[in-house]
Amino acid sequence: MKSGTVVRKYALLLALMALLALAVGTSSAASMLDFDIWMRKIDKKIVDVQKRIAQKDDEAAIQSAEEIEDLYLKMENYFIQIKHPEEAVQMSREGKEAAAIISASVRNQDYDKGVLAAVSIARACSACHDNYRPFK
Question: Which GO terms describe its molecular function (predicted)?
Fold first, then answer.
């Protein structure tokens, strides 16, 4: 009887450790929902950054561009984490780089370059959605 109790306690301990490991692993990992939220934020922010550049509201444009850059970094890390094809990682890097160009251009008051970088992000979003949208 004692060995049966020990085995059950050991099995329960292992099960609890497995659940704890699963909970810790999933809490630090981004989900598809997170990814969807990031894409929607980028969509809104890219429109905002173009408006702010047109208004020559440098501080707000830079802030929005930096937020876009951070969102693309999250997407890049997400794609790396889930071992998604390199194309997704590369597209995220390109978006991040374009957002950095927006910030630098606005800081240098090169608004045309900033707008071109913003438009390139908007076009990349459309192209990606055209190719990878689940429903056509």
Answer: electron transfer activity; heme binding; iron ion binding
- Whether 35 and 78 have beta carbons less than 8 Å apart is answered as yes
Q: Are 63 and 83 in contact (CB under 8 A)?
A: no
**Domain locations in the chain as residue ranges:** 32-132
Query: What pTM was computed for the model?
Result: 0.74
What pLDDT, in 10s, does the model give residues 37-90? 999 999 999 999 999 999 999 999 999 999 999 999 999 999 898 888 888 889
Element (H, E) at 110: none
CATH code for the domain defined by 32-132: 1.20.120
Q: Look up tokens 């934020």; give the residue.
A: 41
